[in-house]
Amino acid sequence: MGYRYETHMHTCEGSACASASGAEMARIHKENGYTGIFVTDHFFNGNTAVPRDLPWRERIGRFCLGYEHAREEGEKIGLDVFFGFEYGVNAADFLVYNLDRQWLLEHEDIDREDARRAFALMRRDGGFIIHAHPFRERDYIDHIELFPRDVDGVEIVNGAQLELPEMNDRAKIYAMMYGLPGTAGSDSHHINALYGSGVEVPRRMERAADYLEMLRAGEVKCLGYGRVLK
Prior knowledge:
Strand content: 15-25%
Number of helices: 7
CATH superfamily: Metal-dependent hydrolases
Number of domains: 1
Mean pLDDT: 94
Largest sheet: 9 strands, mixed
């Protein structure tokens, strides 16, 4: 019996496109059998819920609220909660793990940095990066950008892509071509639309870095999708 983790989810505190709070997301994932979650709200170069005209420190404080509320609830109900964020590069999105609030405070305007330089800074300081839904198609996406030498893995199952599963198929081929490990996440934004994806791992995570270690060791099982959990 493995441990189930959601690696890609949003809260209304940090993501403008989400409707559920961090605490609500923590509770619904616990009810649906997850051991833990990674809160990955849209950063300031994405669909953030944080006003961009605020001072940097205040912006970071507000950005972290979804994670903090989820963590507080997780401590009450026995759910592991880890911090992450979804970093936007034009219309491409990247899930960043194993960094924290302090790192963001110390890297003002990292959202405006050249993408490759930003990724190098993140990885230098222990962060790791997963390219989320690399072949997603939307009317606002005029081209697809890939960074195979700058990431640590590829999201080969995005649970929110129920209507176009070929997007996930292309992501699997991309990961195989470059020898990148594949992972999975639901990309959930609402408590009434959990896609049942994520990963199953052989042991409970104590820190975000455990996820990368198990990913590199080939111990991560990608959970599929096919139904919306209630």
